[in-house]
Amino acid sequence: MPDALRLYAHYVRVSIRSQLQYRASLVMSAIGVFLVTASEFVAVWALFDRFGQVRGWTLPEIALFYGMISITWALCDALGRGFEVFGTMIKEGNFDRLLLRPRSTVLQLLGQELTLRRVGRLAQGILVLGYAASAGTIDWSLPRAVLLVASIACGVCAFLGVIVLQATSAFWTVDSLEVWNAFTYGGVTMSQYPLAIYRSWFRALFTYVIPLGCVNYLPGVAILGRADPLGTPAFVGWVAPLAGPVFLILCLQVWRIGVRHYRSTGS
Amino acid sequence: MAEARTGALRPYMAIVSVRFRMLLQYRSAAIAGLFTQVVFGLVLIMIYEAFYRSAPAAAQPMTFPQLASYVWLGQALLAMLPWNLDAEVRTMVRTGAVAYELCRPIDLYGLWYARAVAQRTAPTILRAAPMAVLATVGMPLLGLGEWRLTPPASLAAGAGFAVALGCALALGCAISTLINISLMWTVAADGIVIVTVTLVSFLSGMLIPLPLFPEWAQAALRWLPFAGLVDLPFRIYTGHIAIGGLVPVLARQLGWTIALVVLGRWLIGRGMRRIVVQGG
Lengths: 267, 280
Prior knowledge:
The structure holds two protein chains of two kinds. By secondary structure, chain A is an all-alpha fold. Chain A contains 15 helices and no strands. In chain A, helix 3 (about 60-80) runs antiparallel to helix 8 (about 120-135), helix 9 (about 140-175) runs antiparallel to helix 13 and helix 9 (about 140-175) runs parallel beside helix 15 (about 245-260). The radius of gyration of chain A is 19 Å and the shape is globular. In chain B, helix 1 crosses helix 6, helix 3 (about 65-75) packs across helix 10 (about 230-240) and helix 7 (about 155-180) runs antiparallel to helix 10. Helices cover about 75% and strands about 0% of the residues of chain B. The model of chain B has no long low-confidence stretch (mean pLDDT about 85). Chain B has eleven helices and no strands. Chain B is mainly α. Classes of the chains: A mainly alpha, B mainly alpha.
């Protein structure tokens, strides 16, 4: 295990060094991602400017969910790049090379790239979260701060699970399908607002099948100290984020089945 | 005379049709994209529905069915927006192959504009029709009738929308071509693409319908070129802009198109003068 961590650290160093070769382009695209995501939050502000509140939730409260999911996705997107572009790897037959190496495929794929330009979304998420944290709606305490950090970590696991599934599907379909964007990018958009505003079938999908609600909405409600309008007991928010790592473990089992199933395209 | 004119247009038409056939190869990607866009449409509509149910009618600048139609039209016509640059033009400029473009006996701006037309229409045609069917017929079948894409407000609104959409395409391609021209100043290109993408999505109505922005911003939004890409045609469709308002809408779209084409032609002339192709 420490050996694997050392190898991963090495992968990360190599990846960072190679990205820093194109420094101007890197800075430009990080700023670009920041601008695009920042304008998205301005749009949310515009909606609150017009409507005042959404189902009793105010802008600072929304900003908590929004900031949390932005940071979560930025981290996952930076870590899981190898899985996201896995379809191309299969198509070009490059996965064979990974299989030949005496290390786990998951470790090698995670080590493919730590995408630095995601820092743009991370910065937006931190700013939005900073606004939520300082707006006076949250009664901060140590347990709540810990829950915030833990939910983000568990959320990264949940999203990683989705992109592992996305990569796994490429074993059967060769190209990795855009369908999964519905659960990654769609999941991000969905999580920017409290789960309670959606229809029940939709809430069920994002709680029991893809547990994004468990790592964002439920702990968010606990951090805000609000009663959940859906009526879940208060303690649930404190344990629900664990669904993230559990989901990731399940997805990695599916991945293992996929690897066993793999037949090279030969190209 | 008329024959001479079609003759002059023929090379451009050929470029459009060749590019078109190439881009139509990506069918499975289109089906996958369709599913994703339906999910996005549903999420957006649920969010707007929640806002609409929490505020008095006075705060609602358009009716909910109009808003739902606006969202679906946006999902259907997403690919028509000038989001990205033409990867092939980028390679051409990087490798110096752009010099071959100069050897062709046709006008370079026209050539690149024709490429943009193909790049914007092929994926749109693939995605728009199935998306429109799903949003019109599929939603009621799922029991979500109030979220569906309603037909145009009237026959005239439908016809007006078709014309305005054509103008939106012309405008979008003028912006696309400008982005591609910026590649000639390669260092600046990344920044220009990013700024354009941000402006286009934010100010066209694609991110949120423009009427939902604060009242004080409305006049400025209306006069910027970006509203002509999405917002103005969509509001003609839903009847939010009465059909009597069609002429000013078209005037704004075409005025901006002409201005941007003139700008693009001037820039391409300057860019070509400074381009240096390495031999060997």
